[in-house]
Amino acid sequence: MPDIAPPAPPPEAGIRPAFDNSYARLPDALFARLPPTPVSAPRLLRLNTGLAGELGLDAAWLASPAGVAMLAGNHVPEGAEPIAQAYSGHQFGHFSPSLGDGRAILLGEVVTPAGLRRDIQLKGSGPTPFSRRGDGRAALGPVLREYIVAEAMAALGIPTTRALAAVATGEHVFREDALPGAVLTRIAASHIRVGTFQYFAARRDMGSLRALLDHAIARHDPAAADAANPALAFFAGVVARQAALVARWMLVGFIHGVMNTDNCAISGETIDYGPCAFLDAYHPETVFSSIDHQGRYAYANQPAIAHWNLARLAEALLPLIGADEAVAVEQAKAVLAGFSPAFGAAWKAGLLAKIGLSDEAPGDEALIQDLLARMAENEADFTLAFRRLADAAQGDAAGFRALFADPAAADAWLAGWQARIAADGVSPAVRAAAMRAVNPAFIPRNHLVEEALAAAVQNDDLAPFEALLEVLARPFEDQPGRERFAAPPRPEQRVRATFCGT
Ligand code: AMP
Ligand code: MG
Fold first, then answer.
1. Which domain holds residue 107?
2. Residues 65 and 172 grouped into a single domain
3. Which of 56, 66, 278, 486 has most Cβ atoms within 10 angstroms of its Cβ?
4. What digits encode the pLDDT tens for the residues 90-107?
C-alpha cells in the first residue's frame, strides 16, 4: 500500500508572530481559555502594514491565507494562547460585576523591535463565557469605525489602541437588521481596565487582585515596584496618564461617548471606540451617544468622569494600598487630588499652544476663556477655528472670522489676541508653523465617517474608507485637493447622534 501523505500545512508566505503571553500565565481566575469561533468566509478588508512593521510582524504572512485565518479567528497559530479576560465595570454609573470579553479574544502578546509589549486581540470573534445574551460578534460598520478613529487618533499623536486589520466574516450579524459581520484586530499596550481591578475587588479575591497589580506594574509602571507603596505609586501613574489623555482628547474636540470604567484603560490609551465623535461646531455640552440621555459623557464632563472612574480604581486598590483602610483612603485621596491640577495644566498648556503662545502671561487664561465662549455662542467649528487662526497669525484673518455666526464677535477677540502676540517677538511664519503642528486640519468628521461606512456596508465599496484613512494619516498637513475632508458638515450632513452598534 502506498504511504498516505500527511495533509499539507496552510501556505505561509513569511514568519508567524512570536508570542510571549504574560497575561495567560497569571492565575486562572483572570480569564477563560478558549479559541475564537471560526467564520465561514474570511476576507481581508484592510491590513495596516505600517503598524505591522512597528510590531515586528510580517505583513506578507498576515496577508497570506494562514495570516488571514488567524485574523479571522479561524486558525490559532502556534504560540498563541487565546483567552477572554474577566472584568467588571460601572456602566453609566451602575456597577455590573460581570462583564468581561464577551466578543473579544486576546490571542497573545508580542514584543516589538522597540521592546514594547503589545496585545493582539480579535474583536467580534464569537461568544465567550462572558457573552451573557450577546452573540460575540461585531458588525462591519462599527469595526471600520473603530479602525478609522483609532488610526486617526494615533496620527494625531494621542495614546490609543490601534487597528491592525479588518476581516469580513462572510456571515451576518443580527441587530435591528441583518448586517455584514467583521472582526477587528486590536493592538493595545494592554487591555487592563479600571474594571479589571474592580472585578477582583468585588469578589474579595485578594490573590488575583495582587497578581493583577504586580502584572500591571511590571507592564506599565515598572518604577512603582521600587516605591515605598507600589499600589499607591501605580495609582499615581494611572491618574497622571488619564489626566493627560483627557486633555489631549479635549484639545482635538474628541468625545469618547462611553467612559464606563470598563472602557478606561490603565495604560492611558484611548480604548473602545463606540459612539465616540468629534465636535464640529464647538459647544461644551455636546453629547452624541444615543444612549447618553443625561449628558453624563458630554464633551466638557469628561475630566469629571475620568476623576470619578479613578476614584473607583482607588476603591478597588485600597486593600493593596494599606491594611489600615482609613489611612489607605487618605493616601489615595491625596493622589487623586492631583488629577484636577494635572488635567488643568495640560489643558491650559495645550490651549496656549493652539492659539500660538509658547508661554503664559497674565491675562492669557481669560483670553482663552473668552475665545471659547465666543466660539460656543457663534457655533464656530472647533477644528477649523484653530487651524484658521494660524492664517490670522500671518495676517489673513478672513477664514477665522467667517467661522463665526457673527464675525464681529471674532474681530473683538482678534484685537486682544493680536495685541498679545505682538508682545512676544515670535515671527509670524514661526508662530503659524507651530500652530499648524498642533491644530489639525483633518479629523474624522462624523459625516465623513458615516459616508465611508455606508458605502462599505451597503455597496461593499471600500474606496471612501480607504480615501478617508489616507487623509487622516497626515492630519497636520494641508492636503491640496482634499478640502472636502476638512470642511464642516452642511446642515443636512450633520450627524446628531451616534450608536454603539454592539
Ligand atoms: P462595550 O459597550 O463594547 O464596552 O461592551 C460592554 C460589555 O458588553 C463588554 O463586556 C462586552 O464584551 C459586551 N458585549 C458588547 N457587545 C457584545 C456582543 N455582541 N456579544 C457579547 N458581548 C458583547
Ligand atoms: Mg468596552
1. 23-191
2. yes
3. 278
4. 999 999 999 999 999 999
